[in-house]
Design a protein that fits this description.
The longest helix has 31 residues. The protein has four domains: 181 residues, P-loop containing nucleotide triphosphate hydrolases (Rossmann fold); 72 residues, no CATH class; 147 residues, Fumarase C, Chain B, domain 1 (Orthogonal Bundle), CATH 1.10.275.40; 201 residues, 3-Layer(aba) Sandwich (Rossmann fold), CATH 3.40.50.300. Helix content is 49%, strand content 13%. It is α/β, with parallel strands linked by helices. The chain is built from 25 helices and 18 strands. The chain is globular and about 75 Å long. Helix 2 packs parallel to helix 3, helix 9 packs across helix 16 and helix 11 runs antiparallel to helix 15.
Length: 631
Amino acid sequence: MTSAGFLQKLKEHLAEFELRPSQQEMLAACERVVTSGGTLLVEAPTGVGKTFAYAIPAILSGKRTIISTNKKNLQDQLIQKDLPLLARVKDFRFSVAKGFSNYLCLLSLHGVQPKTPTEAQERARLLRWAETTEDGEQDSLVPPSPLWDEVRADSAGCLRQDCPYYDQCLYFRARERWFGADLLVVNHALLAADAALALEAGRGLLPDAEILIIDEAHALEDAFSSAFTRWVSRHTLENLIREVTALDRRLAARAHSVLSRLQTLAPTFFEQLRTRYPAERRRVAPEEFALRTEAELLLQTLVQLQAIIEDFLAKESPTLFAQSDARAHLVKLRKCAAWVAQVGATLLNFLEPIQTGSPLVRWTESSEQRATLSVAPLSPKTELHDGLLSRFGSIILTSATLSVGEDFSYIRKQLGIEGETLALASSFDYARQVRLCLHRLQPPERGNPSEKYWDELARRIARIVESTGGGALVLFTNARVLDETARRLRESLHPSALVLCQGEESRSQLLSKFRADGNAVLLGLDSFWEGIDVPGPALRTVIITKIPFEVPDDPVHEARVERLREEGRDPFNEYILPRAALKLKQGFGRLIRTATDTGEVHILDGRVLTRSYGRKLLQALPQGIGIEVID
């Protein structure tokens, strides 16, 4: 069976299925890469049907394939809907892979020592659940458990084949399904964890595969950056001290002097850090760090604590392992040892220039409540290539937003990849379905909004909402502006209008209320610019309050801009503007989700009309849309 023939046979199983030219074009391109190898970047707008276009060639190839998504809703769609449908046309095995912490650890559960009647009741509930659950996944446990952190599986603490519950282990049962699958679905976070382990140990968590398909590929860089970011705070060390002290009396006795020293050093150091570096975020070079001596003393103490725990483990492990009722305690000790080692490694990376991998960005964060030291890769290109991409013969990266005006230069440079590119035409008639309104409202300079600006912003949003009857998603780049606008809207709109605001409830609760009401106004920040899928009239207006330029004081962003300048390149046009254009495209894309959707997009930032870069930003949006300029 050919890929095209497979697509045709879907009509027998999906009555409403229709062949789309863009989908067929993507199918052919994916088939070439799956057959011959190489890398393909495909921009596939909403409505193309990209899942079938990349999955069908992989299924027919007979080669093991890993598909990675960024958001859980797409992962669920693949596992619960798309792949079961494709399996009706041609039989194949598929599974979903998740990290250790998503699974219940039976040894840890049986080893829980309840401290209160409430904890005893919760342990009893978890024991009953453990007897009936099919997968032991955190997502399957309703309601969530306050004991989950204590009973979840953990790579560092796991006894593996030496565990008395190994044959019943829910995590390793899941791994058997992974290794038996022809097609494995993961998320970007697990992909990054797998890459980190592959770099460290020479082999990752996931089974070997020949084909890698990265859906929602626009989020891959940020997912890898986040996965390789580490931080240490006073809160971290206080929790660590508390854990070691309560874990084992004999260990606490041996480590008493070190723990006491750590209890003295940690609060003093982080208070000095907050005083010396009071800025919310500030980049710091290791050789210029003003508290280097104090940090080295803290690190030295952590290294001593790590040595004591490891020595204790070496001496006590055989005895603990020999006692079946003490093995859960051994797991906790191993987890604790790994935690201390990771905190120490983070502090060391902050203080010493790294010689391998990507260059590091180091910064401090301070507020009235806390101070933090953080470390992240400048760019995760090395981790991405050496830990992941180099292991696959065929690689497909796809998203609705990979190019700026069909130019893939930005994403290719950021990910450090070459390969074929393909920008597909949308299946939607944007000229008929969308009206784009550009407002001449000028945002405040240097990010300091005035009362006048807030009043005008809220007035325009209220006027749009009143004219459309609601059903509006309002996207912000600043939490303070969002909060002020929400307050003003609630005062100015009709009392019956439902105004939903990010931070007041969970994302899923807000979206559920937004869909159910049909005429609500939903105000959101960064996470609401993408991954929101509300087809139909419940979402008929998208209001973008400001061009989504990166926050200039973000340490990693600042370091990347600085590096480009040092290389004699143009940071604005090569990095800042493309990132803003892709995010603007994501925000715009929330509106039209089906061929029958219609609505308006309002951009309340006059710079798209007055600045030279405005044209490039508009070119990133679907072309042919009627534009109305509003003074």
